[in-house]
Amino acid sequence: MRIFRLRAPYFSMVQSGRKTVEGRLNKPDLHNLKVGERIRFQRENEVKHFVDVRVISLRQYPTFREMLKREGLNRCLPDVKTVEEGVQIYHSFPSYRENEMLYGALAIGIHPIKLGEKA
Q1: Cβ–Cβ < 8 Å for 39, 106
Q2: H or E stretch including 57?
Q3: Low-confidence residues of the chain: pLDDT under 70
Q4: Residues 93, 62, 86, 55: is their CA dihedral positive or negative?
Q5: 29: which DSSP letter?
Q6: What is the model's pLDDT at position 3?
Q7: Interatomic CA distance for residues 82 and 69, integer angstroms
Q8: 66 CB-near residues (< 8 Å, 6+ apart)
Q9: Quick one: which of 103, 9, 21 has its CA closest to 55?
């Protein structure tokens, strides 16, 4: 199972089911990610806090701006008001601004797995 770390506000949004698309740089290590695969999100710096999700879709985009427009701001970053603000959030993550043109963006559609639910 892959493990991704999330900052606290985004972790809570995934856990509650409000955030249904996780945006990442489309780096080669994600090219073999498959629909149906299980991912564990850990809250940044707190490995005991995690939520498991199922990948329900995968879509590639040339930029985070395009991803936010096509996937919907509310699905990617529920509390953000504008696409420009959303782009600034993604660009604030280490290496995202510098590598966006090289890798593009990957929109990972996710659904939380409830306790007792088969992955």
Answers
A1: no
A2: strand 46-61
A3: 115-119
A4: negative
A5: G
A6: 94
A7: 10
A8: 105
A9: 21
Rounded Cα–Cα distance for residues 59 and 82 (Å): 21
pLDDT in the model for residue 74: 96
Domain 2-112 in CATH 2.30.30.100? The answer is: no
Q: Which residue has the tokens 């629909």?
A: 35
Residues in contact with 70: Cβ distance below 8 Å, sequence separation at least 6, in sequence order: 59, 61, 107
- What distance in Å separates the CA atoms of residue 32 and residue 58, rounded to the nearest whole number? 11
**Quick one: DSSP state of residue 77?**
S
Q: Which of 50, 11, 53 is nearest to 35 (CA)?
A: 53
Q: Give the whole-angstrom CA distance, residue 34 versus residue 93.
A: 24
CA 5 – CA 93 distance, rounded (Å)? 12
Residue type, position 8, single letter: A
Q: Are 72 and 35 in contact (CB under 8 A)?
A: no
What pLDDT does 118 receive?
Answer: 54
Lookup: tokens for 58: 């995968």
